[in-house]
């Protein structure tokens, strides 16, 4: 007799394959992070000069280039400051936001293609359904809230959101809403280089302080809320399985 395998279970060889795939993807991202964010193999100054040479097309060029560079872990504050330096505080903020949304979409798409199937297989059907329901109700605001958390890489978070199946529209809109304060801060500071005592620079610093404090509280509350919902969903699944076993 052939044993029936539950749809949510993953056979050991298949499980090892999914783990290896996710580990390889994580290793690739870690190596990329080291090369770009730590070893600084990308010269942002040269990129800025090359974009400036495109003339009237420079804002669009900087959006595209920064979106790709952000997805490979070039620090967002450096890119935003470069936008302010090139385009000033008003146009620079718009360029920074466009690049930020582009990075979220690129990283989310790669994360979805590289890790979503393996992540769902390892989670199992029941947990995947719980996460899908949470994403449907709160995925957009999870992306928005992540943008307020200080010290967390937006690109890395977007890869993770993509792997867990957050829709592209939620990533794009959430990045646009959640990144607005920081886009203003870093772009204005970049535009204010040499005159950091200006009122605009002081306002950027004030916004940064408020955003950091709000982000710390939002992260703590969001994590507790997410954990409570996940635990509740898992308990409901166990209870339903017990009822089915009793009925059988």
UniProtKB/TrEMBL annotation:
Its main location: membrane. Belongs to the TVP38/TMEM64 family. The chain crosses the membrane at residues 20-39, 51-74, 86-110, 156-180, 200-219. It holds the Pfam family VTT_dom. It comes from Mycobacterium helveticum. This is TVP38/TMEM64 family membrane protein. GO terms for cellular component: plasma membrane. Residues 74-191 form the VTT domain. The keyword Cell membrane applies. Keywords: Cell membrane, Membrane, Transmembrane, Transmembrane helix. It is found in: Cell membrane. It is a multi-pass membrane protein.
